Amino acid sequence: MARKVLTAEAIKQLVDQENVKFLRLMFTDINGIIKNVEVPISQLDKVLSNKMMFDGSSIDGFVRIEESDMYLRPDLSTWLIFPWEAEHGKVARLICSVYTADGEPFLGDPRNNLKKLVREMRDKGFKDFNIGPEPEFFLFKLDEYGKPTLKLNDQGGYFDFAPVDLGENCRRDIVLELEKMGFEVEASHHEVAPGQHEIDFKYADAVDAADNIQTFKLVVKTIARKHGLHATFMPKPLHGVNGSGMHINMSLFNQDGTNAFYDEKGTEQLSETAYHFLAGLLQHARAITAINNPTVNSYKRLVPGFEAPVYVAWSGHNRSPLIRVPQSRGLSTRLELRSVDPSANPYLAIGSILAAGLSGLDQGLLPDAGVDRNIYSMDETERKENHITDLPSTLHNALKELAKDEIIKDSMGPYLYQSFMDSKSLEWAAYRQQVSEWEREQYLELY
Asked: Is 0.90 topped by the overall pTM?
C-alpha cells in the first residue's frame, strides 16, 4: 500500500473536495484490537496540531486512572478516506501514535515500540525491514439478529471456485475495496478449510506493514458484514480442519537498496546476514511464540496434522519446519516464518521478529543445517539428533519461555512487557478455570 507524504494543508483540501464529515483516529491496544476516537471534521485543526486527548485508563494495557490523559498524534502518511458510502458524508482515518501528557512517546504503545526497534535497525546500517503478510480468515453466516453463527457459507477447498466457493463474491468485493484504498493485492483465493480464505497484499516496511494489517482486518470485517457474513481472524474456530495463520515473509534491505539476505556466491545464494538473522529467529522462536500466537486458541492451531508448524527448524525445500526459505532470489530473497497467526498484534509480532533476527546478527549466530525431510514423519529420537525442538504447546508455556528471554523482553521494554504478561496471564487464568463440553463428555459418567 503506497504511502503519500501529505501536509496538513493538503489534508484540509481533500476534506473539502471529498465531503469528509467524520474522522477516525485509530490506534491499537496491547491485545492487537483496533481502537478509535471518532470526531467531527470540525475538530480537524485540533487533530492536526496534536492536541487531541483521550482517556488512556480505559484501554487494555495502557495506564492507571490517575494518569489517564493521553494524546493521539496522527501519522499524516496514513490519511485514508474509506471508500464505502456514509449517510452523512464520507469518513476518513488517521493512524495515531500515543503520547503522554508530557509530550513523550508512550512506552506502552505497541506502534511506538516498533518504531523504536526500526530506528535501532537503521542504526545498524540497514534501511528497511520489508514484511509481506499472508493473513487467513473464516467467513461465517450471521443470524437474524446480526450475531455470528458457526454456519459456513461454503464447502470449498484450496483454490476452489464458484459454485463451491460461495465466498467468492465477498472476497472479490474485499479486494476491490482494498484496491480503492491503495492496497496492491497480489492474490486472493479459497484456503484449505471450508469457509476459509486468504488475501495477500504487497510487502511494506515494518511499521507500514503493521498499519496495513490492521486496516486489512477492518476492511475484511466491514465488507463481510455487508454480505451477511462474519469474518473472523480467530486462529482455530473449528475442530478438525486447518486453522488460520498469517505467514510473515521478511527481508532486510541495505542503504543502497540491495537485499541484505541475498548473496549470489553464498551457500544457497543466501548471505551471512541471512544466516545470522535466521539463527536469531530459531534461538528465540519459543519466546516470540507468546507474542506471535497470543491467545489460548492459538495453540489449538499449532498441532500436527493441520499444516501449522510445531517444530523449531528451517528448510529451503519443505513446508513442515517453522521457517521456510522460498526459492526466489535477488531482490525477492526472503525468510518465511510460518507460525504467526492473525490474532497477533502486528506491531508486537513484527517487533519481536526483528529483535530476534537482529540478535542473531549481533552475536554472529549460525543455524543448524536445514531439515529437508518431513519432520512430522520423524520420531522423537530423530528430531533430537537433528536438534529439533518443539514450539510451546500452550499459552501458559509460551509465556514462561518469554519470561526467560532477556533479549525479547528488552526489545519490548519493561512497561510493554509487563502489560502484555499481565493481560495474557489473566487470559490463561480465566481459561483454565472453565469446564469445557469435552470434559463433561469424557468424565461426567466415567467418574
From this structure: yes
